Amino acid sequence: MSNMCNYLENKLLDHVLRNVPYTSPTTIYIALLTSNPAEAGDITSEVSGGSYARQAITFDEIVDGVTQNTYDIEFPQATADWGIITHVILMDAETGGNPLFYAELTTAKTITTDDIFKVPISELTVKLD
């Protein structure tokens, strides 16, 4: 997951190059999408309903510009069909908020009633080159 959204790119450039303060979010959330949000961070295809809720995510220490999720990330059991999950996006709020990073899943995953979407420990990598 090295695709940075425009929002974060602009905040980091302002912070580093123009000395404009940027306060990092207290908590980062992962959201599930049924289409590509692209750099604009378009979340109009975020799953909704059926017990869906963004999940908080924590990361390991950053080494050489790379970090991974510290724990398994498990979404609630779906009480309705969520569709075909093709992308994930990191957000700075539990609802609404600003897009930070996004990635396409290696394999799209269809979530139907009673399914659980899970990201195992260390499977979500954020990398900057």
* Rg, Å, rounded: 15 Å
User: What integer is the average pLDDT?
Assistant: 95
Specify the overall morphology. Answer: globular
Total number of domains:
1
What is the number of E strands? 9
**Beta-strand content estimate:** 25-35%
SSE string: EHEEEEEEEE
Q: Report the sheet with the most strands, covering strand number, pairing sense and barrel closure.
A: 5 strands, antiparallel
* Poorly predicted runs of 5 or more residues: none
Q: Strand order, main sheet: write it out.
A: 1-7-6-2-3
Cα separation of the termini: 11 Å
Structural class: mainly beta
Helix content: 10-25%
User: How many H/I helical runs?
Assistant: 1
InterPro entries: Gp80-like (IPR056908)
Pfam families: Gp80
Q: What are the salient characteristics of this protein?
A:
129 residues; mainly beta; 1 helix; Gp80-like; five-stranded antiparallel β-sheet; two-stranded antiparallel ribbon
